[in-house]
Amino acid sequence: MNTTRHRVPSSHNDNHSSVAAVASAVDKPPSSGTIRRAIVFLLLISFSCFVFYRSVRSSSSSSSILSRIFPSFDSFQSLEIEEPSLEDVLRRAATKDNTVILTTLNEAWAAPGSVLDLFFESFGIGEGTSKLLEHLVIIALDAKAYSRCRELHKHCFSLETVGVDFSGEAYFMTRSYLKMMWRRIDFLRSVLELGYSFVFTDADVMWFRNPFSRFYKYGDFQIACDHYLGRSNDLENRPNGGFSYVRSNNRTILFYKYWYGSRIKYAGYHDQDVLNFIKKDPYITHIGLRIRFLNTAYFGGLCEPSKDLNLVCTMHANCCFGMDSKLHDLRIMLQDWRDFMSLPFRLKHSSGFTWKVPQNCSLDSLRRYDWIDEEESEPPRGTEQ
Ligand SMILES: *[C@@H]1O[C@H](CO)[C@@H](O)[C@H](O)[C@H]1NC(C)=O
Ligand SMILES: *[C@@H]1O[C@H](CO)[C@@H](O)[C@H](O)[C@H]1NC(C)=O
Predict the structure, then answer these.
(1) Which of 19, 22, 119, 335 has the fewest CB atoms within 10 Å of its CB?
(2) Angle between helix 19-27 and 35-58 (nearest 10)
(3) What's the pLDDT band for 380 if we cut at 50, 70, 90?
(4) Which domain does 47 fall in, by range?
């Protein structure tokens, strides 16, 4: 221990916050050197380093000095300041076969007691679903949604779009609703390009069972339906973009580009409508995309509930307008599930237990807002939350 014999520099008060002072102190010749002096010296060194570190951190221009001394300083600093990249977030959340579960979230849905809380609750009371949260990435569309995500969840990604405010309740078919939906399609394309397959789920889809065993082995693009006609490859099925399973490959990447590009040809339409327009296009056959529609027996919703609770995987609060109605019916749906789960095994299969929803949600409540500017028609923010 050489340093224990070094002498305390007499000038330490003047420049204890510079590297030179520390260096020259170390160079001073050893003196008689009592243990007590050595301890004082060590304390001073620690203090100097502390002060030095603080002063460097408060002036960015000298951070290069620190990174020359501690080569890992830069990476340490950038980790602390910069948000993780999409690639990092996906990698951390992905399953072994590079699959993630994605949902998008805005301020209105993130608020305490709102949709996000019910979404998490479903994972908690579902059968074998809580472990799936490990693979869920929440894509926050505004700052409030992002900070709420950070409070509650491990994997959050901020996708703020400059000049667009997605934070309010997005009314069906208003202009900001359309922008939000199309932003989502473009974003999902970028996830596929990074090599990740995904289950996309709206946060108003309740997860009651692990859905992976119900996906088709050979489908590239699999999507839930408002109405399911009975055959998984029947293009007349009415898809709902609130729940889909998409494998990352060249066909799906081309398909998402084509879908996103088609918003120009079908200006003013919802991504789901455009999907219905393009699903029979020769281009889709040309790229060889295998589309599969998911049976509402497993992937139901308020439009067409999964009849048998022994089979249901997910239930979507589709066919619903207005936040109050949606939350009302989602809460009843969760209670229905709890009631079902508390039945004895035999009764689960013989009692003919069914959902008590829809109640306040119904197709009739789905007021149309087509082609109307939200600036003219939307009630003030907060009235419907
Ligand atoms: C796309 O196709 C090319 C050439 O056939 C192949 O090398 C590449 O791995 C494919 N990419 C994906 C994501 O499947
Ligand atoms: C649900 O509907 C009932 C009956 O129409 C109504 O009294 C109640 O206020 C509604 N609740 C919500 C949250 O919309």
Answers:
(1) 335
(2) 160
(3) very low
(4) 22-79
